[in-house]
Amino acid sequence: MVMYDALYSWAKHLQTLKHTQSPPERLLLQVLHAYLKPSGSRKPPAWVDGLKELIQDQIDTNLTLSLTELSESLDVNAAYVSRTFARYFDDLSFGEYICKLRIEKVLQLLQNTTYTLTKIAYLTGFSDQSHFTRIFTKQVGQNSSEYRKKRVKGKADTKG
Questions:
Q1: Average confidence score pLDDT of the chain
Q2: HTH araC/xylS-type domain: which residues (predicted)?
Q3: CA-to-CA dists, residue 66 to 138, 141, 151, angstroms
Q4: What is the DSSP code string of 10-22?
């Protein structure tokens, strides 16, 4: 009942907002999907696996991924892929899913390299550092420089 009340309140009072904007809302959405997964769900179409593979193969090299180009290479109608994309990709649109993958790559680079934030933004396909900072803050809940400082401080504390 607690989960039901939380979801009802969320839907009733925040219906004008996009529901996957902040990290707490993302967590709530993940919990919802984990508990409400249908037991007899249908197997996703073959193009879903192909699309996942294409996105993973091209996310690092092709900084201008296009759903139209990807769907053409799979020989599936782009409008159909666009319409059903969220069903198979964590309830995210194509653009949101690509942003999520890029932010995951950013987090890896922040943890494992000493690249500047500008270079990380460039390497992960963001148009400029301000766009990168805005998306990172929206996805992670804090800006990238704060995140990096906390990571460095945390590593220094564990070495002592």
A1: 81
A2: 49-150
A3: 23, 27, 33
A4: HHHHSTTS-TTSS
